[in-house]
Design a protein that fits this description.
The complex is a heterodimer of chains A (274) and B (191). Chain A has 274 residues and is mainly α. Chain A has helices at 11-23, 28-44, 60-96, 104-108, 119-132, 138-142, 166-169, 179-195, 199-212, 219-232, 236-249, 254-262. Among the domains of chain A are: 61-148, no CATH class; 177-272, Serine Threonine Protein Phosphatase 5, Tetratricopeptide repeat, CATH 1.25.40. Helices cover 59% and strands 0% of the residues of chain A. By secondary structure, chain B is an all-alpha fold. Chain B has two domains: 1-100, Rna Polymerase Sigma Factor, Chain: A (Orthogonal Bundle); 115-191, Winged helix-like DNA-binding domain superfamily/Winged helix DNA-binding domain (Arc Repressor Mutant, subunit A). The chains are: A mainly alpha (274), B mainly alpha (191).
Chain lengths: 274, 191
Amino acid sequence: MEAIEVPELSARARDLLVQGRAGLIPSAGETARLRELVVAAAAAGAVTLPPRPGAATAAASGSAAARLVLAGVVGVAMVVVAIVLARERAASDDAARVVTPPSAEPATVPTPEAPSTTAPAVAPVIASAIPEAPVASTAPATAPGRAPAPRSHPRSAARSAPSVAPTAEVPPPASDDDPLRRELALLRTARAALADDRPDDAVAVIDTYRRDFPDGQLAEEAFALEVEALCGLGRTDDADDALTALTRRWPASPHRARAARACDHLAPEAPDAP
Amino acid sequence: MQPQLAPPDATAGPPPATSPGLSLEQIYDHHAATVWRTLRALGVDAGRLDDAMQDVFLVVHRRLAEFEQRSSITTWLYGIARRVAADHRRRRTAERRLAGDAPLDREISPGESPLDAAQRREAAALLLELLDELDDDKREVFALMEIEQLAAPVVAELLGIPLNTVYSRLRLARQRFEAAVARRRHAEEIP
């Protein structure tokens, strides 16, 4: 078969692809966090395995149903226990105070079904209810609020609520307004000014950065650039101060040594700067 | 960058790729980055990645016993990721307008400066924006070939389309991508 002629990408497009691809990696923390989610989800979703080729999402219904049934079993058991307890209490109340009408007590117990007439008759139900509980009618009746969201996939217990409301899953900030991008743009400008031997501009940009982002993500980098810029301006005392501040906030900062190196007068004694 | 990011068939190091008793954890540890990148490249928003990753590996978990050596495990994973991504793409469009994308991941790799890390992420974000300008069918071909470096016949098999269709989509995708790059460049130069 003759292949269709496909034009090559330009160097610039190729470059964007290579750099973008290099950036498309999950951080170590993200990888670890997702690993926990994935393993937990697999454990939770491992109940059924209907071998339906191509039906990537079909298996969900199996485990969802299993969970419903389980919720139903638990619900029924709890109701039964509640009935027993209530009746025992009613019995002892009756024995102690004949004033209370026996018929009033069951009315306060939140049972969906008509209560049996006598307490002893209820007890055996507990034993038989567990295996037989997966009756379709009991499960929805007792656990409608806990029913899995109508998603196509089961979610692990490790996940929190968002899976129910799709729009709530996405964090609010829009990417265009991402502060990190704006921070980045400012510091890039500062770095470019430094490289262009305009340390005064760099200092001005860093001042702007500080004002706009007092708690910026890139504050550490900003300090390092500032040290370099101040040294470039000959403001060695200010550079000292900036380096000291950098060291105080980030004692292990990799930028410290670099910033100090950039300033001749700081290089030898930087770690002990006052 | 990291070796495991290259097309795993080629450079995944000592891959357990064809040993029969693979566990979900092993597969995750070897292929999580590839799956993650593929999902992103195929249009899964950051805010949906948790779901999408779980979806992929749930399918892996369920189908692992059925997985035979018909294809390499990476091709198998690409196939799953691609279906999951398509599913998420379908659901995202309306939501995205309301909620926007998630913020960038802040974490910095060891030995990386915050600025470098931010630039790396920005490059990724820019690439994703450019990919967003492609139609879904072209995006799939483009991402699998240009980012995942899969061969055209593999992509044809994955997508279930004729080889010629792969090439024609690639051609159109490259043209669009190139145009998007050019537009962005002009936009940057004007101010």
